[in-house]
Specification:
Blueprint: H1 12-20, E1 24-29, E2 37-41, E3 47-52, H2 57-77, H3 86-96, H4 107-116, H5 128-135, E4 144-145, E5 154-156, E6 162-169, E7 172-177, E8 183-186, E9 191-194
Length: 197
């Protein structure tokens, strides 16, 4: 399967046009918990983009464009630029413009993505509005995002570790692991299983 099997049909020709002149290998990979995609340049100079196979078509496309923007920004400005700095933000915004169509993105998501592109974040998960808009196209689940839990609620991660939500600290949530007493910061959109009191 290729990336075209995972993105909206109306976006396929536009993505192909974007990649036609770029020496980039796009690989669809198994789900990773910590990221939706990544961009790498090997020591030999080969460029590889990976995107998780489990993403809904809209998140897959946004992630793919995010990673292509890394490649184009590094080509244009060199590898000394900040990975998510001004040059990357401008490049991401520029290459995403042709995709801002109702034939590609449903209306509510289109508006949120347009707003995101004004100052894109390093991850779509750190933009809560975009993350929630994208999540609405995922299969339904019993899990909740950490920001949806009440203060002091207990929750479990997929690996079985149990935490208690304490408070918001700037943009993330301070939580305590019950077995060790150690504190950790979680992104607000991390999905967890809320435990019954």
């Amino acid at each position: 399967m290729t990336y075209n099997d995972f993105i909206p049909l109306a976006a396929q020709d536009k993505v192909s046009d974007l990649l036609n002149h770029e020496p980039v290998l796009v690989k669809v990979v198994k789900k990773r918990r910590t990221k939706h995609g990544d961009f790498r340049k090997s020591p030999s100079g080969k460029i590889q983009i990976t995107v998780n196979e489990n993403e809904n078509p809209f998140r897959f496309l946004i992630t793919l464009l995010h990673e292509i923007a890394h490649h184009i920004a590094f080509q244009e400005y060199g590898f000394r630029i900040a990975p998510h700095g001004r040059e990357w933000k401008n490049t991401f915004n520029s290459i995403a413009q042709p995709f801002l169509l109702s034939s590609i993105f449903p209306s509510p998501l289109l508006e949120v993505f347009q707003h995101h592109l004004k100052n894109p974040k390093a991850s779509s998960d750190t933009d809560i509005q975009l993350s929630l808009a994208l999540k609405s196209f995922d299969p339904s689940t019993h899990k909740k995002a950490i920001f949806e839990l009440p203060a002091m609620a207990k929750f479990k991660l997929d690996n079985g570790r149990i935490f208690q939500k304490v408070r918001k600290q700037r943009k993330r949530y301070l939580c305590t692991e019950l077995s060790s007493g150690k504190s950790y910061l979680f992104q607000p959109t991390v999905e967890v299983d809320q435990m019954e009191e």
